[in-house]
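Submission sheet (multi-component)
Chains listed below:
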Amino acid sequence: MIRRELVEIGQRAKQAARQLAYASTESKNKALLAMAEALLENEQEILRANTIDVQAAEDKGIKKSLINRLRLTSQGISNISSALREVVNLKDPVGEGEVWTRPNGLRILQTRVPLGVVAMIYEARPNVTVDAAALCLKSGNSVILRGGSEALESNKALAKVIAKAAEDSGLPAGCIQLITETDREWVQQLMRMNEFVDVIIPRGGAGLIQTVVQYATVPVIETGTGMCHAFVDRDADYEKAIPIVINAKTQNPGVCNALETLLVDETIAEDFLPKVEEELKKHHVALKGCPRTCAILPNALPAEEDDWVLEHLDLVLSVKVVSDLDAALDHIYRYSTKHSETIITENYSKAQRFLKEVDAAVTYVNASTRFTDGGRFGFGAEIGISTQKLHARGPMGLKELTTIKYMVYGDGQIVT
Amino acid sequence: MIRRELVEIGQRAKQAARQLAYASTESKNKALLAMAEALLENEQEILRANTIDVQAAEDKGIKKSLINRLRLTSQGISNISSALREVVNLKDPVGEGEVWTRPNGLRILQTRVPLGVVAMIYEARPNVTVDAAALCLKSGNSVILRGGSEALESNKALAKVIAKAAEDSGLPAGCIQLITETDREWVQQLMRMNEFVDVIIPRGGAGLIQTVVQYATVPVIETGTGMCHAFVDRDADYEKAIPIVINAKTQNPGVCNALETLLVDETIAEDFLPKVEEELKKHHVALKGCPRTCAILPNALPAEEDDWVLEHLDLVLSVKVVSDLDAALDHIYRYSTKHSETIITENYSKAQRFLKEVDAAVTYVNASTRFTDGGRFGFGAEIGISTQKLHARGPMGLKELTTIKYMVYGDGQIVT
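Outcome: structure written.
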């Protein structure tokens, strides 16, 4: 049995979704601008709430990088507010579509409509509360948010401000709701509320995502775990290979599209590895190598099985020497989480084989895996990066928060 | 723990999928033609196997309509073979896509690729074994089939013939596999083989589909339960309304797009109901009515709550008098399974409201719900009709058996 409070949240969300489904783009944009304004106006209240979260995290001795993600500043709130204004400028996918006419005269429209009720389950960063709500609203969905307990006070303040602004501007009550109960049972029930929730999008670490996949009966869009590889082929141009490896590993090591494993063709390993190591050292990257790598690079630590399986999400790079492209493809086939994979080569046929044979959301030739991002792909904003194959794959923008619906115009047709 | 035999089936399917993903359309079509030929050549073997199933079903006293679905004839096998040839003529969606170039010169291709491994769980009709395998192969997927136990011998014969033909023509071993074990534990494990299976498509009754949705951790595409409504508005043209109601209810009452509930505007109920009843009587349709319907039609039986909730899938129609369009929309909102819904009206604004406000895969004006079908929509063939919102909605053809993949062509780009 789903507990009464959750059923009420579900009913409100579903009721709001029914109205939001045919809200005009104008009315949704008006709400987004009101939300952006309200964040600035209520900055002090939000910062006060955030201070409580940060203090509690510090008292618990949570590590500094996580506390930094949690912390809001006046500038941070201004950035969140600006991001909201950018969502206003994105094209509303609702109502777009195609039309064709059947020989019997039936006119069939395939049009984009909102998914309905989207539940977001996410971890530390409070800005997700606002980003996710904005993208869901713009695409005509109501949203149920369930953030991490460390950010509870911040999320409560943010959600209160934006929900009020959205409702005051005319959107239906219940279009943005935050679950403020941190008891695990609530989130477990949320994952099974098929009657009220159309899709769950988990955003966070591999543990959170696996829990949702295993436990949910509501359809899930898996996001984010990125065990990304770069294969430096014997025909690579070092002028491209070294900057790409450095960029993919160091530009933002804590994110899902960062490089985790470097595969190097054995033909060039003795020449290439010391050169790339020198550059990696300047960026304080520690290496975990296969036996052949360790023989070439005495400073590398021996890699263990987990180094090929799990994301470091840190300034650590696993390195393996492979016999050729086939061996690289086999390694990637075995360990890839199907997020982003890149080959560095000047060889046409090997580039094409890599693009074709690697099964991942994004396959690259001669480019950094860090490009896997809705903004960098030109989508304007993203709600996450799907690593599953159903519904959405790779960076998800507004379109991925919609589904299709057929509208058929007849004048008395029956089947024969 | 997944049992060893299933892990082996999963590994073979995954290995086959890796090769099938880049099989040419030519090689897939060659295999489909060989499969069509092999069915005709092995007709006797297939019919013998089918006789065993039919005999067993008769011994068990299974009802006649189900036995008819199960029974194969020489003509039936010829039809299945012809259907295979039609799949050859369908356009292969794999490799289609779009391309754009980012300001930094990155060329991004968004292309269609197969899902990978598709598991089909279905009930009685043995032709599904061949249809599903053909559509999966054509779209580059390997398929794991698990049919109903009543059709086991027929399915074994069919799967053996088509799998051998496909492999002999050059497709990878394991591209078509049938689970021949009818123990429930096997299908339960199949639903949780996320490592090997990319999607599960259940086809059958509401019970089967709910079991899969509740139990599977592999992503599911729900198909088929159709609690379809027709609303005859006060502005309806009876010349359209009566044929549409008759067609939607009687042309094939056992299928998911057949009409289950008739809603009639109170303004015309006393006039319209006796007229439609007269025609329905000619087709031997029994009526279950709300109190107001029963007052107008003394022959109607009183409807119970279940008559609004569950598909009759038979020559039975539930009938309710409603006060207006809003009341009809509320009834549909409450009871619809979001499959197919139709309004019969000459009123422009009410038609538009119905199309827009009813949340279903297909909404119609002045047409029979029976048109919700891949063939009738112009898709050529269908693997099922999705009643969920994620990935696919409405009739699913080859395109819905694919996903997308991004291929990015760079020349040294890094993010800044």
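Remark: The mean pLDDT of chain B is 95.
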